[in-house]
TrEMBL record:
SUPFAM superfamilies: GroES-like (SSF50129), NAD(P)-binding Rossmann-fold domains (SSF51735). GO terms for molecular function: oxidoreductase activity, acting on the CH-CH group of donors, NAD or NADP as acceptor. Residues 11-121 form the Oxidoreductase N-terminal domain. Keywords: Oxidoreductase. Residues 169-274 form the Alcohol dehydrogenase-like C-terminal domain. This is Enoyl reductase (ER) domain-containing protein. InterPro entries: ADH-like_C, ADH_N_2, GroES-like_sf, MDR_fam, NAD(P)-bd_dom_sf. It comes from Chaetoceros debilis. The keyword Oxidoreductase applies.
Length: 356
């Protein structure tokens, strides 16, 4: 038995109120500190000692009063979910005590669930468990599906590829995939720090700073993509998508992974408020295609994706930096940080203190 106690002191982030617009850690979330009495937990539930969780944009889509059709919703005073990994300290028929698991769990020290959406965490040689929160997990798989599976044709050598939110976890992985295809890659991100990351660490061919006070995104795209754009991997939507559409070439491919510009405003769950592309007619004029994807509809490709990602991980061809915040108390502020753009790569909350 891993449990020597019948009561565990727990900390769980719950939804105090629905965000009106931007998520506010001090107003919309509450850290509930209470004992977890094992006698009150149903026998078919598992208890996971959470080691770490990732801060993903989709979490924000679940916090509005109207539930998101793809991700679901969180009720008031209910635990906020997060993707993470940890150790099962009380198991059920599916997961035994001592097993390491990964998947959707509660943003808490101890997560209680039936084990839905979880799977055993595979141990890879010379790889930390945290890699399953980005490169070997949802971020890497999403980049793979959006780059190689969903579009009618993946980037070719010599083509110009633009990636929005290129300094984030999915974006930076997708950008490196495009480079491996031999494409000329331009990343869009906010601020000089991220621009430097794209050019010096990822070695992209160009970078656009959407926070620039001297040049618009349109002006920068004209400079960085003088011959037009052949492939666009979009994580942002809104006006950024519109800017790119005006510059696409014949038979361009636009792969829609997300629309983070619409998430923190709450617009994503109010379809009448979503800022859509005014220049969609360019798709018809250039015989181009737009393909969107929900990665859970492509599970048959996951194994191949992991094989590709593993190959390039061990050869150092694809990297994803980790920005680690310490302790469960930092979760809500980290969710704020995600939309403020204060990090590069995958934003992680280290709950157990195991990440170096």
């Amino acid at each position: 038995m891993l449990l020597s106690k019948t009561v565990l002191p727990n900390k769980t982030w719950t939804l105090r109120s629905f965000p009106e617009k931007q998520f506010c850690a001090t107003e919309n979330a509450e850290l509930l500190e209470e004992d977890l009495d094992l006698k009150n937990v149903d026998d078919d539930k598992i208890i996971v000692e959470v080691h770490a969780v990732s801060i993903d944009a989709f979490i924000r889509t679940m916090l509005d009063s109207n539930a998101n059709p793809a991700h679901g919703g969180v009720g008031l005073n209910c635990p906020i979910p997060a993707l993470g990994y940890g150790k099962v300290i009380r198991g059920n028929d599916k997961f035994k005590e001592g097993a390491m698991v990964t998947g959707l769990m509660q943003a808490a020290k101890y997560s209680v669930s039936g084990g839905e959406g979880m799977q055993k965490l595979v141990s890879l040689p010379r790889a930390p468990s945290s890699v399953f929160l980005h490169q070997m997990g949802i971020s890497g798989i999403a980049a793979y599906i959006g780059m190689f599976v969903s579009p009618r044709k993946y980037p070719r050598k010599g083509e110009t590829v633009v990636i929005s939110a290129a300094a984030g976890a999915v974006g930076c992985i997708a950008a490196q995939m495009a480079k491996l295809c031999g494409a000329r890659v331009v990343g869009i991100a906010g601020g000089e720090k991220k621009k430097e990351f794209l050019l010096k660490e990822l070695k992209l061919d160009g970078a656009v700073d959407y926070k620039s006070t001297t040049k618009t995104v349109a002006e920068q795209l004209d400079e960085q993509c003088p011959d037009g754009i052949d492939f666009f991997f979009d994580n942002v939507g809104g006006s950024t998508l519109d800017c790119v559409l005006q510059r696409i070439n014949l038979h361009a491919r636009i792969s829609i992974c997300g629309a983070i510009s619409q998430y923190d405003s709450g617009k994503i769950n109010n379809k009448q408020s979503i800022v859509g592309p005014a220049h969609y007619i360019k798709v018809a004029e250039t015989s181009s295609t737009i393909s969107g994807f929900n990665m859970m509809h492509y599970q048959s490709h996951f194994l191949k994706a992991i094989g590709y990602l593993s190959w390039h991980y061990y050869r150092g061809n694809i990297v994803c930096p980790e920005h680690v915040e310490k302790g469960i108390n930092s979760f809500a502020k980290s969710l704020e940080m995600l939309f403020a753009g204060g990090h590069c790569g995958r934003l992680i909350v280290d709950i157990s203190g195991d990440i170096e």
